[in-house]
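in:
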């Protein structure tokens, strides 16, 4: 008689213990407090700040450990280079499509038409966001290389940390077995950092409450109405990107986009409240490995995606730039918009993924075009947090899909495990 091994069914925890549910409750409570008790909402933003600072405290080290451990464990620098090239080609193609979708939709629907805003009246409001100077492509390349590795970690420069991590990992891989003690140490440090993140995540609902309460109390629900068309158009653009780009790419990758979104639902809901993609990097790393993606692919593709695969942010830059041109009566010919697209392909790379950084990059972009008034950014400051919730959500979904697709190209996914996990849904250990 043959015994059939059975896998024990997963025990579902109560819905109220699910992090996604808790964060949603925090967001809802924040909206209520911000709208009906703004005096309290004005003073709880520190809750979100503390949470973001706790994540930023370790995210640089986590990227270093993840990249170093992933590359060094391969010991095949040719494979590392192949993964990197494939990932960068994927990122560039998808972000270009995102920019085109954003430009087309905002030109067709024209959410800023008829506003007739005089940009000269906005100079005082926007002065804080205007960049000191426009950086060229050569400046961007120079900024990739840190003058000090310690400074890169201290300032949270993700691209610089990534460059140092790759070089350090390649150096370790080149010395062969002698690198094993260092590799073991890095692996242990990584586990310790993930323990910290698991503890920090317990306060995520409180952080989301503080961030949303402050935003609503400061700008009010009514301030969203005049710019409602922009919000509606931008959310439509994000939906179109999911339907026209991420869904077909997921089909090509051999997995269900809806199941991927369900699997990462806690992280996606969290970024809706915090507008910070950094806050979920460690959890994405752990979950992608649990889905059966090989460590070298996760360790190289995901950190690189955080700097080069800003799908949602590209949608934001394209939509808001043209919206501001329409609102201020700035004439943008198709040649000017083509130039804008090329500028955005450069300025959209290397963002920190922290709430507010998109405003600085948008100012840099408008300054580089010499057509759209930089001061017009003041128009969208009141609704930036509403827009950022959508584009950070899109960024995270896009990065997860990108890692799975590159994993498929590299034949570095346990397909059986991937489908079993996606079908069952994520269950914490």
């Amino acid at each position: 008689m043959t015994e059939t091994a059975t896998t024990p069914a997963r025990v579902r925890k109560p819905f109220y213990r699910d992090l996604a549910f808790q964060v949603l409750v925090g967001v809802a409570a924040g909206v209520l407090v911000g709208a009906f008790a703004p005096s309290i909402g004005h003073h709880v933003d520190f809750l979100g700040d503390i949470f973001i600072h706790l994540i930023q405290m370790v995210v640089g080290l986590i990227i270093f450990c993840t990249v170093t451990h992933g590359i060094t464990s391969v010991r095949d620098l040719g494979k590392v280079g192949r993964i990197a090239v494939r990932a960068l080609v994927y990122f560039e193609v998808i972000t270009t499509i995102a920019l085109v979708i954003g430009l087309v939709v905002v030109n067709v629907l024209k959410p800023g038409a008829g506003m007739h805003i005089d940009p000269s009246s906005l100079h005082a409001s926007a002065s804080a966001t205007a960049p000191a100077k426009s950086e060229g492509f050569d400046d961007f390349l120079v900024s990739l290389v840190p003058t000090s590795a310690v400074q890169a970690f201290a300032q949270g420069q993700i691209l610089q940390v990534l460059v140092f991590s790759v070089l350090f990992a390649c150096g370790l891989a080149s010395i062969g077995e002698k690198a094993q003690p260092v590799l073991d140490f890095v692996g242990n440090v990584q586990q310790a950092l993930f323990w910290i993140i698991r503890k920090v995540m317990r306060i995520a609902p409180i952080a989301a409450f503080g961030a949303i309460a402050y935003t609503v109390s400061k700008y009010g629900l009514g301030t969203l109405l005049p710019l409602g068309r922009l919000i509606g158009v931008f959310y439509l653009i994000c939906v179109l990107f999911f339907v026209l780009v991420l869904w077909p790419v997921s089909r090509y990758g051999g997995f269900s986009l809806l199941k991927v979104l369900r699997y990462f639902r806690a992280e996606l809901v969290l970024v809706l409240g915090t507008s910070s993609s950094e806050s979920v990097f460690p959890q994405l790393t752990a979950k992608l490995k649990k889905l059966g993606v090989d460590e070298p692919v996760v360790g190289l593709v995901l950190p690189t995606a955080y700097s080069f695969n800003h799908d949602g942010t590209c949608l934001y830059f394209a939509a808001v730039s043209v919206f501001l041109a329409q609102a201020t009566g700035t004439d943008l010919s198709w040649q000017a918009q083509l130039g804008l697209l090329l500028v955005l392909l450069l300025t959209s790379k290397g963002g920190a993924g922290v709430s507010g950084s998109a405003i600085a990059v948008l100012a840099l972009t408008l300054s580089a075009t010499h057509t759209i008034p930089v001061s017009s950014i003041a128009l969208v400051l009141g609704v930036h947090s509403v827009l950022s919730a959508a584009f950070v959500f899109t960024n995270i979904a896009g990065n997860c899909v990108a890692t799975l697709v590159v994993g498929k190209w590299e034949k570095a996914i346990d397909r059986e495990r991937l489908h079993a996990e996606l079908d069952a849904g994520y269950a914490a250990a």
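note: Residues 1-8, 123-135, 350-355 have pLDDT under 50 and may be disordered.
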